[in-house]
Structures are given as structure tokens and as C-alpha cells.
Amino acid sequence: MPDLEIDRVSKRYGNVVALDEVSFTVRAGELFGFVGSNGAGKTTTMRIALGVLAADGGEVRFGGTPVTHETRTRIGYMPEERGLYPKMKVLPQLVYLAELHGMSTGEAHRSAENWIARLGLTERRLDEVQKLSLGNQQRVQLAAALVHDPAVLVLDEPFSGLDPIAVDVMSDVLREKAANGVPVVFSSHQLDLVERLCDRIGIIRSGRLVANGTVGELTAGANAQLVVQAPAAYPGWAKQIPGVRVLGEDQSGTVLELESDVDDQTVLRAALATGPVREFRRRRPTLTELFRHVVTGGEK
Ligand SMILES: Nc1ncnc2c1ncn2[C@@H]1O[C@H](COP(=O)(O)OP(=O)(O)O)[C@@H](O)[C@H]1O
Ligand SMILES: [Mg+2]
Questions:
Q1: pLDDT digits (tens, 9 = 90+) for 74-130
Q2: Of the bound ligands, which one is closest to the alpha carbon of residue 203?
Q3: Model's pTM, two decimal places?
Q4: Ligand 2 centre from 85 Cα, in Å?
Q5: Cβ 188 under 6 angstroms from ligand 1
Q6: 247-257 pLDDT, tens per residue?
Q7: pLDDT value, residue 297
Q8: 179/29 Cα distance (integer angstroms)
Q9: Ligand 1 in contact with 38 (CB < 6 A)?
Q10: 71: number of CA atoms within 13 Å, CB side?
């Protein structure tokens, strides 16, 4: 199965550098999370990957060859602005879109019915799209991206506005697609979701890719963190320990960040000095913490 490669892609809008040599590869069978603040360049990258927007420089390749009009029909795309015909009914719309991508009428029907059932839209299949709830419209949008059995999936904010059940359905479908060997890339603001779902993550900031790797790789260089539960401890007990920063403190425990040369046994002794210690463990930083760090460029 082929990879999707974004290779040194650049784009300007007048004086605004929207993308500055952005490169990353979404491997076959991989779920890749693309995260960044508003205006960072996610949508621009995805539109260039699909070929609906031309880059000023760089190249997008699928299976080693530049994306062309023919390969483009093999991409399943969910645009940020969404792109359904509001007055068309769900089933005929999906059949139409599948046919547009080259499926026979019979295949298109089977595929549309399959995704309608899979995404919980059976009772809505003959409703006009504009009469559906936003969450259901989004399910139809996902079905539209999937109905022609694409070889690559590029989804711009597919989770935004979904209720928790629809989030689970979307997550399952994306995982399943990746497990079948399809490269899947999606953008999102929901970092907990990205951390849970994705094999690898790219973080974009002001048009530059500032991090790219697995969560483990991205957090490997970060300072160690400790979770300490010392129920008898007074608030702020850890504040005076040199090289230790208190990230959070509540009934369930205290989260500490240690500078690299701090011995965790010093922290343990300080904790024991307050009374019993029920929990004492290291953890890695969350993607949210990592994201704050890289998008502020370590300024804070
Ligand atoms: N059609 C356009 N004309 C001018 N500037 C644009 C256009 N589309 C995007 N931009 C600018 O390019 C940058 C990246 O935007 P975008 O890719 O939409 O970011 P994101 O999807 O991460 O929020 C922003 O500064 C945005 O204002
Ligand atoms: Mg966007």
C-alpha cells in the first residue's frame, strides 16, 4: 500500500506565508494527526494534498508519484467548509458522489447503503441533508469521503461538532481504514483525542512543521513528571524542593515537573516527611502540555 508524502510544500497569500516548506509522510496503515492553532496552515496543507489548491513550491506524492487528476479521485476528502448538496437526499447524494468517482451504479448503491448503515443513518437515508442535525450532516460528510472506497483519507477537522457517540463511530471507522492499509490524516483541535487515536502526530505553527513523530518520540526530550499522592501533605508541600515545579495539585495528588538533574528520591523523601505516600509514579507529558510548549516556542 502506498504512502502519502508532503514534501517541502510552500504557499503564500500575498505577503502572508501560509506554509513554509512543510514536509511529513503519512504511511500506509497509519493514522496521522495534524494539529495546530487557528491559522497555522492545516486547511491549506490539506487542500494542497488533495490538489484543489496549487502550492508555490514542493510536491505531494502518493505511492511515489505526484498527485494528478487521476490519483486525486482515489483520495477521500472531508473539506473544512463541508461540501454537500443541502437539498439532495442522503442516499441519492452518496450514490451520485460514488458514481462521480468512477463506481458503477450497482457498486455505488451497495457502498452508499453500507456506509449509511455503518454510520447510523438508516432512518435518515431519504431525508434532505439540510433537514438533518449538524452531527448527522457530519456523518453524511464522512460517508461522502468514504463512499468511493478511497486509497487515502484526508479529513479536515472531522471531529468538530460531533457528539460523543458520533466521535466513537468516527474513531472506529478511521482506525479500521488505517488497519486496512489506508494512510489517514486528519486535523483536529481535540488533543486528547489525537493522542488516543493517532500513530503519529505533526504539529504546525505559523506555517512551519515544528514537531513530527509518535507521542513517545515527541515527549522523549521533555522533563520527567511525577504524580505523588500524599494525603496528609499540606498544600504547596513540594514548592520548596529545588528544581521542582508544581504543575497541578488537588485531592487526587500533585503533579510535578523535575529538571533533568533532580533525583526523584529527594522528592520521595520530602513527600514522606509530610506523612504516608499512597502513589508515587513517573509519567510522560500529555500531548496538550507538549503542544503548549511547542506552539509558544518554549517562550513560557
Ligand atoms: N484564501 C486565502 N486568502 C488569503 N489568506 C488565506 C487564505 N486561506 C488561508 N489564508 C491564510 O493562510 C494561513 C493559514 O490558514 P489555514 O490553512 O486556513 O489555517 P488552519 O486551517 O490551520 O486554521 C492563515 O494566516 C490564513 O489567514
Ligand atoms: Mg482550517
A1: 899 998 887 899 999 999 999 999 999 999 999 999 999 999 999 999 999 999 999
A2: 1
A3: 0.85
A4: 21
A5: no
A6: 998 888 999 99
A7: 61
A8: 5
A9: yes
A10: 17
Pocket test for ligand 1, best of 11, 44, 210 (most atoms within 8 A of CB): 44
Q: What is the pLDDT of residue 171?
A: 94
Assign 252 to helix, strand or coil. Answer: coil
Pick one of 3.40.50, 2.60.40, 1.20.120, 3.30.70 as the CATH number of 223-284. Answer: 3.30.70
Annotated domain spans of the chain: 4-214, 223-284
CA-closest residue to ligand 1 atom 7: 13
The mean pLDDT of 192-213, rounded to a whole number, is 94
Instruction: Give distance in angstroms: CA of 11 to centre of ligand 1.
Output: 10
Backbone CA torsion sign across 191, 194, 197, 201: negative
Q: At what angle do helices 105-118 and 90-100 cross, to 10 degrees?
A: 130
Look at strands 4-13 and 16-26 and give their pairing. antiparallel
Listed residue (294, 300, 285) closest to 215, CA to CA: 285
Number of H helices, E strands in the chain: 10, 14
Q: Where on the phi/psi map is residue 196: left (φ > 0), alpha (ψ -120 to 50), or beta?
A: alpha
Q: Is the pLDDT of residue 298 over 60?
A: no
Confidence of residue 185 (pLDDT cuts 50, 70, 90): very high
Ligand 1 atom 2, closest CA = 13
CA distance 187 to 43: 8
Ligand found nearest the CA of 36? 1
The domain 4-214: what is its CATH number?
3.40.50.300
* Cα–ligand 2 centroid distance for 31 (angstroms): 19
